[in-house]
Structure formats: C-alpha cells, structure tokens
Design goal:
Blueprint (H helix, E strand, L loop, with lengths): L2 E6 L6 H8 L17 E6 L3 H10 L3 E3 L2 E6 L14 H9 L3 E7 L15 H31 L4 H18 L14 H6 L8 E6 L10 H10 L5 E5 L1 H8 L4 H10 L6 H13 L1 E7 L3 E8 L4 H8 L1 H5 L1 E7 L1 H7 L2 H6 L4 E3 L10 E6 L2
Parallel strand pairs: 1-4, 1-5, 3-9, 5-6, 6-7
Antiparallel strand pairs: 2-4, 8-9, 10-11, 10-12
Helix pairs in contact: 1-8, 4-5
C-alpha cells in the first residue's frame, strides 16, 4: 500500500527545505511566504536494515524497498478556511493525504522572516488547527443539513447520520480536532468516508536549529506539553541538518556527519518510523533470486490481505502462505536451510501477518 503524507504548516517554517532534503522531489525553498504555490510531490525510499540483510543473503537480481509519497503543501495562514492565501486549494491538497506532517518552527533567526512577526510554536500550531477545524465544520454542516432533511422520513440510516454528525459538530465547537471525537467503532466507516481533515493522524515535527537537534529546546518542550494529551506523535528535526546530509554522497559520510552532531539516525529515518507508528503499519518481505522486496500493510492484516498488496489476484485466489520469521532466516542463512530445520510455517486465511515476516503466497485464479 502506498503511504501518502502531506507536510503542512505556516509559510516559511522550513517545509520545502525538509521536503527537498528527504525526498526525490524539488521545491523552491525561499526566505519569504508562499514560495510554494502548487503542491510538490516526491518519494522517500524507506530505509530498512532487514531488507539490506536479506539482499546480502539472497543476492537477488533486484532490490525493491517500499516508498512513502511526500507532498509539500503550500503554507496555510489564518483565514485559509475562507480562501485566504489560496487556502481552499491548499486544504484540498491535504484532503488527499493519509497523514499530516505538521511542521512547526521552533528556532529563532532574525534572518528568516515569520509570517506573524514572531516565533511562537503553540500559537502557530493552533492557527493551523483552527483552519483545518473550520474547514471540517463547513463540510459537516452541509452534510448535517442534508441528513436532517432526510431524517424527516424516519429512515434509520438518516437518523444515524444526524446522530454522528451532531457529535462531530459538538467536538469542533469545543475546539477539538475530530481525531479525538467520541465516535463508536462501528460508526467510523461513516466518518472515514467523509475524508475530513482533522480525522487524519498527525505528526508534529519541531524544526530546530542545529544545536538543538539532539535534545530540543524550550520551544519544543512547550509544544510537547501542549499536545501531550493528543493522539499524536512529536519529533525533533533540523531541516538545515537534513539538507546537509542529503548533499553527502556515501552512507559512510552520512553516518560520520550524524556522529559529529551527536545523532544516531537521520531525521528521514525517524520521520518514517513515526509515520509508520502513527498509521499502525508494518513491513513484510518477499525474497527470491529475482527480487527481494519490502511491502507495507496495516498491523493486524491477515495473509490474504497481505497477498492483495502484491496483486488483487493473489488475494482473490489465495490458497496458503509459506512464512519464515526474519530472525530464523538470518540465523540459518537461506530459505533451504530454514525448510530443512522445519522453521517454515504453512499458514491459512486467518494468519495475522507480523512485522518482518518473509512470505511466499500460493494462489489459484
């Protein structure tokens, strides 16, 4: 499954700099608001040491890591929900993503202008939250009026729609994003179909100066305290450091640079790990002489669903899955050795895929 994340935030907080550093896309990164007017789209190759190890053991003809699509969405400002700063267009871009990477400026620099004249991470976060909430309220209000009209017939589905939409309206009235709305599990498909902005999982990315990349700073601490009760992830990144790393040619140079900065992994790696956690995703592998490949599925997916990620025919005609645990493969060194040791399991339709499984599917269409 393709994961699509949108980078949002106020203008000039470092979104395009980060986008350029971590993805294949290229955006104009300039020291003035609205340097980005159209969404820029790029791909990030998901780093996974397990994939590299499997490739070392199998020596395949090709190696295929999984990817994440990143969309650099132009800066939002106060009034975006009413079209200010081309807001309607930008909000529509967000609607198409699976998760929101909300980038917040947590550094002072007189040479980098701020759209509101000062740096205040909590205020900046709340400006974006409010605009997304207002846009959702507009969407829900229209749906609510239609549902109330339909409910006059006492149709069960229309009455249920009114009930759910009333809860959503009340949540937004209280200034709370809809990812925190008290919706029953069985009603979630209705909400999901509305594709509302504030139901999307959010990762707050604190953009800091190079000196704060390891431990953060007071601005980061204040933001973490503000969002501690939200169902969200928070991470620290220095877009400036990521920009420098992206210019280094070899993995050895990158690791050396990170060590000098007191870091153990790049911001790109941390961002992807957080995004996977946020969306409850896991990785399984296929491994053969033609190709070693990583695949992404939702945690809790059963074997036929995992097969369907490769091709819909695999799911439709699923017979069984041959499963090897990653540690067993690495310890024994080959698929043949795993088979001889009796460590390959044959699983049926109810098998729940676990992170790191190496799978081969048998199907008949």
């Amino acid at each position: 499954m393709a994961l699509k994340c949108g980078i949002v935030g106020l203008p000039n907080v470092g979104k395009s700099t980060l986008f350029n550093a971590i993805s294949t896309g290229k955006a104009l990164a300039a020291n003035y608001p609205f340097a980005t007017k159209e969404p820029n789209i790029g791909m990030i190759t998901v780093p996974d040491a397990r994939l590299d190890k499997l490739a070392e053991l199998v020596d395949p003809q090709s190696l295929q890591p999984t990817t994440v699509e990143i969309v650099d969405i132009a800066g939002l400002i106060k009034g975006a929900s009413n079209g200010e700063g081309l807001g309607n267009q930008f909000l529509s871009n967000i609607r198409e993503t699976d998760a929101i990477i909300h980038m917040i400026r947590c550094f002072d620099d007189d040479n980098v202008v701020h759209v509101d004249g000062s740096v205040d991470p909590i205020r900046d976060k709340e400006v974006i939250d409010m605009e997304l909430q207002l846009k959702d309220f507009d969407t829900i209000e229209k749906a609510y009026q239609k549902a109330v009209k339909n409910a006059k017939s006492q149709e069960k589905s229309a009455l249920k729609a009114v009930e759910i939409l009333t809860i959503l309206k009340k949540t937004l009235d209280e200034g709370i994003s809809l990812r925190e709305a008290p919706i029953e599990k069985e009603d979630m498909p209705f909400v999901k179909d509305m594709n509302l902005l504030t139901t999307k999982p959010v990762l707050y990315v604190c953009n800091v100066d190079e000196m704060s990349a390891k431990n953060g700073n007071a601005k980061v601490d204040a933001l973490k305290e503000r969002v501690k009760d939200e169902p969200a992830e928070v991470m620290i990144i220095s877009a400036a450091i990521e920009e420098e790393i992206s210019g280094l040619e070899s993995a050895e140079e990158r690791l050396e640079f990170l060590a000098e900065m007191g870091l153990t992994q790049s911001g790109t790696e941390m961002l992807i790990q957080k995004a996977y956690s946020l969306l409850d995703l896991i990785t399984y592998f296929t491994a053969g002489v033609k190709e070693v490949r990583a695949w992404t599925v939702k945690r809790g997916s059963k074997a036929p669903q995992a097969a369907g990620v490769i091709h819909t025919d695999f799911e439709k005609g699923f017979i069984r899955a041959e499963v090897i645990k990653y540690d067993d493969y690495v310890t024994l060194g080959s698929e043949q050795a795993v088979k001889e040791a009796g460590k390959m399991n044959v699983e049926g339709k109810e098998y729940v895929v676990t992170d790191g499984d190496i799978m081969h599917f048998r199907f008949n269409v």
